[in-house]
Specification:
Shape: globular
CATH superfamily of one domain: Alkaline Phosphatase, subunit A
CATH class of one domain: Alpha Beta
CATH topology of one domain: Alkaline Phosphatase, subunit A
Distance between the termini: 48 Å
Mean pLDDT: 89
Oligomer: single chain
Helix content: 25-40%
Radius of gyration: 25 Å
Length: 700
């Protein structure tokens, strides 16, 4: 997330994803240069055309600039507590000049669904994103819900001079129109940085850097590598690959796996040899692509360019970071997923194509993978807490450089940037916040006991620096999150529950196979896959469907009623807060693509890891002992997001899908009829004695 689309681990947060065809970096750079030259050559013509045929907003804009700072997953309850304790001074100042509201998320409150509603102003029935995954109607195998990537080849020349090069057809599955496209129609400039579900990038008046679903160079949603001299163990690392190597004195020979060679499709993945020479007890030298780099145990290298040769003067370039984990009794080396090189992008990851290159020239290489923070490296115990924390911090610093560059370059228009570290950190460190969590160690390391509170403090500092750039009456600043967070202590295997209640039949000799491979479809009426959905095996929709359309409603009612009464035998607590039916919860032309039932889990519960990938275990409930200890795949009422603004939001009970029409209204643009969101009433800034407040904080 490569000539054939891989379904191995096509699971967003659950693991790596679908493949894609890589264009040679030479072709990508050439196209970007040509695009830039064409833009420069035709700039006077385009400028004249805009002046003559400019479509202006029909109403006077309320603000010259609107800035949205997205902090993915910032929780309303935790934010409110830390505000009351005086630990978030900048957010307190923002609240006092405007206000703070809980922000209602979507059903389900999952990032791809929520951010799609944020940008389109519509419910999922109109934008077609209901989860990270959706089942294939023919094979039942999971596939990405937001993007479809198909590969092919083109050729130029003839005979021995004929050259083949790969092409990729990347199709956005999110429907409806982002509000910045409407702004573009009225000549308003946009700077859209790392908003989820913006891949592939779409044309707009402005610049855009894509986020969630941007694949790594190998075509997955992020596959890390571990090189070790330890004895081979059974099982695989979810989200990564283990390479067993030999140490010859102080030298270890390794190979970095790349994408398949488009000119030799039967040759498998390309391989890039590299050598690690042990130079000390905690140090080594890495030699790759003819260059040397120092390795220190427990420290990441800078981004290192890696080049895979596909043919004469044809290469595919990526960037990755290496970290030496051990050189003592055993050798261990970690390598991040290979990101698409932003300076030599193998495929379009931004608009215009030169924008990612411009950023790389400005600040050097940076993370481009949609899910850039390697949560599975930590969950699979390849990384340690401090390694993951450093990774998140480094990516946030990269993002800040992009964001503040955008604020500087866009004095008028719309600017938005989403920071993912808040989401990833809370997923992985909630076990230190929840004293009852099964994954919480007996002795919590002092350095991580307050990891999440420290994270909120760093985001507060970011908000303060953002406010300094937006301190004028002509700028509306909104700080918001797409959902909140909750502890994830107990797993629920929905497929096991469906099996025990007679809705799903599994062949015992094929139990626990991925992607529902062991299910007997001739006897199965319902199945679960993904993070919140149950699908009725309807005839006419699925190739092996057995439930007649006229019987589907009764079956949905029956399953929903039983699920609502599901009780955890360990605590006698109800595990399900609500069960929603798509036909009633959604409106729009795409609601037929939704799961038939959407499970709203109670706080502390979530779908099991096995059920999410289509396995069926032998028990319904189990403890969650993974580092991934916090989550938001629960009932929306449990995890509201936040909405801060530097002007008072007068409207009560704001929703995430209200942001799009509100921004349009602030610029004087008409709100399209298809939008479900309402325009929030934005008042004036409140008068606050900031000097007195700052003195008060200093005393505290």
């Amino acid at each position: 997330m490569v000539a054939v689309i891989s379904t191995t681990g096509v699971l967003g947060y659950i693991g790596p994803g679908a493949g894609f065809a890589l264009a040679g970096s030479f072709l990508a750079i050439f196209a970007a240069i040509v695009s830039a030259l064409m833009m420069v050559m035709f700039w006077p013509v385009r400028r004249l055309f805009r002046l003559l045929f400019k479509k202006s907003p029909p109403k006077k804009p309320r603000f010259k600039r609107v800035v949205v700072l997205g902090l993915d997953g910032l929780d309303y309850g935790l934010t409110s507590r830390l505000l009351n304790e005086g630990k978030l001074p900048n957010l307190a100042r923002l609240r006092d000049t405007g206000n703070l509201n809980p922000l209602a998320s979507t059903l389900p409150p999952i990032s791809p669904v929520a951010w799609s509603s944020f940008q389109t102003g519509v419910n999922p029935g109109k934008h077609n994103i209901f989860d990270f995954l959706r089942p294939d109607e023919k094979t039942y195998r999971p596939k990405l819900s937001s993007v479809e990537i198909r590969s092919g080849k083109k050729s130029i020349g003839y005979g021995p001079l004929k050259f083949r090069f790969p092409t990729s057809d990347v199709r956005m599955l999110r429907k409806s129109k982002p509000f910045w496209s409407v702004l573009s129609d009225y000549g308003i400039f946009n700077c859209v940085i790392r908003v989820p579900i913006t891949f592939p990038p779409e044309k707009l008046r402005g610049v855009q850097l894509s986020a969630m679903c941007v694949p790594d160079l190998r075509g997955t949603q992020g596959t890390f590598s571990q090189y070790t001299t330890r004895e081979k163990s059974e099982g695989e690392k979810t989200g990564g690959e283990v390479h067993y190597v030999n140490r010859n004195d102080d030298t270890v020979e390794c190979e970095l796996l790349g994408p398949p060679n488009p000119n030799k499709p039967d040759a498998g993945d390309m391989r890039l040899p590299f050598t690690v020479s042990i130079t000390g007890q905690q140090s080594a030298t890495l030699t790759i692509n003819g260059t040397q780099h120092s390795l220190k145990q427990g420290e990441y290298t800078d981004w290192i360019s890696v080049k895979f040769r596909t043919g004469f003067r044809s290469n595919v370039l990526g960037v990755c970071r290496f970290m030496l984990l051990s050189t003592d009794s055993q050798f261990d080396l970690y390598v991040t997923p290979i990101h698409i090189d932003p300076e030599h992008p193998a495929m379009a990851i931004g608009y215009p194509k030169v924008y990612p290159i411009y950023l790389a020239k400005q600040q050097g290489p940076y993370a481009t993978l949609g899910l850039a923070e390697d949560t599975w490296g930590l969950s699979e115990e390849v990384l340690e807490d401090q390694h993951f924390l450093q990774q998140c911090s480094d990516i946030d610093i990269e993002r800040e450089a992009m964001f503040f560059d955008g604020l500087e370059k866009v004095p008028e228009g719309f600017c938005v940037c989403v920071f993912d570290g808040t989401d990833r950190m809370q997923h992985m460190f909630w076990r230190y916040l929840d004293e009852s969590h099964p994954a919480r160690p007996a002795k919590v390391p002092t350095a991580f006991a307050t990891a999440i509170e420290d994270l909120y403090g760093r985001m507060d500092d970011l908000v303060g620096r953002t406010m300094a750039k937006c301190d004028d009456d002509d700028t509306l600043l909104m700080v918001l999150s797409d959902h909140g967070f909750n502890t994830f202590r107990r797993c629920i295997d929905l497929n096991r529950w469906l099996e025990e209640n007679g809705y799903l039949v599994v062949n015992d000799d094929e139990r626990n196979k991925d992607y529902l491979a062991g299910v007997d479809w001739s006897k199965t009426r319902a199945f679960a896959i993904g993070l919140t959905g149950i699908f009725v095996n309807r005839a006419g929709k699925f190739d092996h469907g057995i439930v007649a359309p006229e019987d589907a409603a009764e079956l949905r009612d029956e399953i929903a009623a039983k699920l609502r009464d599901l009780v955890d035998p360990n605590s006698d607590a109800k595990a399900i807060k609500s069960v929603y039916q798509a036909v009633k919860a959604y409106r729009g032309p795409y609601k037929e693509n939704a799961p038939d039932l959407i499970v709203g889990y109670a706080g502390g519960y979530r779908v099991s890891w096995d059920s999410a990938v289509g396995r069926t275990n032998t028990t319904i409930f189990s403890d969650n002992t993974k580092a991934w200890s916090g989550d938001h795949c629960v009932d929306p009422s449990v995890v509201p997001g936040v909405l801060f603004a530097n002007h008072e939001i007068v409207t009560t009970h704001p929703r995430l899908l209200d942001i799009a029409p509100t921004v349009l209204e602030m610029f004087g643009c008409p709100v399209p009829d298809y939008m479900d969101g309402r325009v929030l009433e934005v008042g004036d800034r409140k008068a606050v004695d900031l000097s007195a407040q700052e003195t008060e904080l200093e005393v505290a």
